[in-house]
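Blackboard transcription, Thursday session:
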Amino acid sequence: MPSTATHPSPLTPVRPASTALLAFIRGFGQVDLQPAVATGVLFLAALWVADWTVGLFAVIGTAVSTATAAVLGVDRGAIAQGLHGYSGCLTGIALVTYLGNHPSTYLLAVLGAILCPLLGAALTTLLGPYGLTPLTAPFCLVSGVMVLGAPSFDRIWHGSPAALADTTARVDMLTWGDIRRAFFSNVSQIFLVQEWQVGLIMLLGLTFAGLRVVGFAALGSMVGILTAWALGAPNTLIAQGIYGYNAVLVAIAVGAVLLAGTVPNGLYALFGAAAATGLTAALTTLFKTFGGHTFTWPFILTTWVLMAAVPGLPRLRPARAPAPSGDPVAVPGPSPLPERHPR
Amino acid sequence: MPSTATHPSPLTPVRPASTALLAFIRGFGQVDLQPAVATGVLFLAALWVADWTVGLFAVIGTAVSTATAAVLGVDRGAIAQGLHGYSGCLTGIALVTYLGNHPSTYLLAVLGAILCPLLGAALTTLLGPYGLTPLTAPFCLVSGVMVLGAPSFDRIWHGSPAALADTTARVDMLTWGDIRRAFFSNVSQIFLVQEWQVGLIMLLGLTFAGLRVVGFAALGSMVGILTAWALGAPNTLIAQGIYGYNAVLVAIAVGAVLLAGTVPNGLYALFGAAAATGLTAALTTLFKTFGGHTFTWPFILTTWVLMAAVPGLPRLRPARAPAPSGDPVAVPGPSPLPERHPR
Amino acid sequence: MPSTATHPSPLTPVRPASTALLAFIRGFGQVDLQPAVATGVLFLAALWVADWTVGLFAVIGTAVSTATAAVLGVDRGAIAQGLHGYSGCLTGIALVTYLGNHPSTYLLAVLGAILCPLLGAALTTLLGPYGLTPLTAPFCLVSGVMVLGAPSFDRIWHGSPAALADTTARVDMLTWGDIRRAFFSNVSQIFLVQEWQVGLIMLLGLTFAGLRVVGFAALGSMVGILTAWALGAPNTLIAQGIYGYNAVLVAIAVGAVLLAGTVPNGLYALFGAAAATGLTAALTTLFKTFGGHTFTWPFILTTWVLMAAVPGLPRLRPARAPAPSGDPVAVPGPSPLPERHPR
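(Written on the board underneath:)
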């Protein structure tokens, strides 16, 4: 069922190469749920600014993941929107970050990027009846399993290149410099990058996705800082963006993409951003016991809960077109529930 | 869709204040799945007998949770039955028990009680197609995340006020005094309270919910004691009610609320009570590795499994009205499965 | 709704005793998803060759589990196909392996075998709408909970009789002897048995299930060895079959039972076998932190993901008759999704 939004009209000659390039570029922006090409370009540039290995592995992951989806013959509209690239992008970055820049890591990145569309298809089946979408869960599952299993294998484990964030460090004074760095690092940490300048470029990229998107990203970042400070999180972790990147994603997803643009919906999104900030500490403690990684699980779980609650909350309204990418095809809603009560 | 059962008829003038008070009171009884007002009153009294902080936090949690549901505009019939209060009640008690009586804990109790109706709505969406209900899972999720995340935050963590139950202590002779204390503590431990006198008052409260309810509560408590003793659990833990409170809840839920009153159904409920007793040890071991808490997970998981199995077991029969609260609206059943086989 | 495939025709007199015996025998073969009687006979013989306690507990588990299903009145066709025996079989073996040959273990094996059909019915309800089946999950859940909870109870815990596999041992040269032992142990480790001769008998048993079944079992075993070697797993673990038994199960299930016999489907199954091999390391690391056991979880999770992804992958085709046992009744498919996209 090709849609005019994602396919050229009969009058325009189809150019597969440029279609593939656009799908690839859009994959980077879709990490923040944005299909705008300019957003993708600036995100890609920011990743190379962060580090050449981060940029290279992000390119490998996005390209292989998108190409795999095409080979597997999945829905072409979704591919064109970059919806099969973003999990591969994050998987590539996560693998080089936690396994180091070794030849074996390149092979694993390719393998992980191949697995992402499969996990995406499986989660779409499982979540579809509830009207939920996989978000970045394919990335979290593939990367989580690979990083967790890696130390068991001699050919892919070369010692840990990255130190785990210590969420139990003590709290100090939060300076204006901390707050400024936190505000931008909250955006870059979505891609596991700590440098606040990278977050600045990405926030610039989000302006091309529209005022509502960049506005909720900024509000989410501020809510994340405020919540972490109010709870008494260590200022070093706040400044590194460890406590805020999930808040940014929840604010964008719930505030600017999945729900309609009403005041109650916006407050709901920011409340979710605060909840995701607290959840980050609990999940990090849980994952640390077995050597797992938090990744974007707080965002995913918070967004799933918030969106699954919407049918029971009559003051909230889903977005008219539920797909984040302008895809005109409706996501199947939850089966009709005659009336709701929680027990 | 207002129902005559939960709303006054046109001839009776609506009195919002008393409706709110009844919803609040019923929230305490609904921890044991009972909407009877007298049950709620005696449970509330028992909690103040246990400790004034327990009573106070239970009141805060129940009131805030019920009020949040009203503000969010969820189904008024469910609110009136106390179905949006019980998870907040338990959350308040759990937070003061594991975080201590500090100003920050009051704020967290309010926040947790606000989150409970959201989790309730989300779980209702996810479990609805299977004909399952959230039970106390909103409490377990909200309190579990908050207690697990708390040590990461300087402003809310003031050291651990409660020692974890040590399920590996060795076994001694089980005295009649142990058995008597266990019988009543199994009822009070549902509210995280160890004093057997509190359980005695609560069992008295359950008599107002009907003979079948108090009968299955007593039977569940005895099955819990017997199972724990037969497996060789330490008698101190048995006497403290650690091994029996999930058995009581399973017996009430499956034996007196969710299934019809037949002999096979009753045996099924008591078998489930025994299974929940064993599951308590496994889950406590699991949760201890990352500092989590067992809470009422054994009850929830056992009841979900037992109820999900019912469509495949033709000798068992669900209750005519599936709602535990007299709510006349039908819970949507599982989608029609033409025939069942397990692989 | 009796089916002609599993019940004698009206001209043949029904003989309950032989029906029960056939259901019992088939339970052993159904561990590998095969209803052929000869396969079951050879599997049963192989288990007694492994060790008399293994054989005895497998018999107890299979018999009690099948009988429980009959008493509970579940679908007779499924019972006749051995579909209610295999989880009990594995549960019996797991309990004697991890708890030792004590009187209490016999009682637990009976209890565990009673629980398996209940878990099977519950999982069938939960997975049914997605067209997924429980596979060996009832075994993994029942045995996992029992083994995890056992050390808490004085009467059932007599010290650990089995050492956990150490997946972090270092790698050596892989000899031809290692490869030969691995090839057969990958088949026997499905039953938690390490001796390669047992795997040889079982592979012989699989020949009676057809060329496609034994072919995919052999291919799966080879893919498991190759993947583990390529990743750099310790050769002792490879030779013991620790890394390959899930690959064998995935290859049989996806390659020879659940999908149609096409080339893309076959490659998909072998890709899944490789993925399950890697997943084994990650899950073993995860389970070790709390004393849990990997069992056949890598097979189950990989197969669920692969099968849930099929509706989104138009190049793959499910088997015409979705039931692995010749049962002619259709498994309900997932609810109709008008179009698929992963976010």
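Lecturer's comment: The mean pLDDT of chain B is 88.
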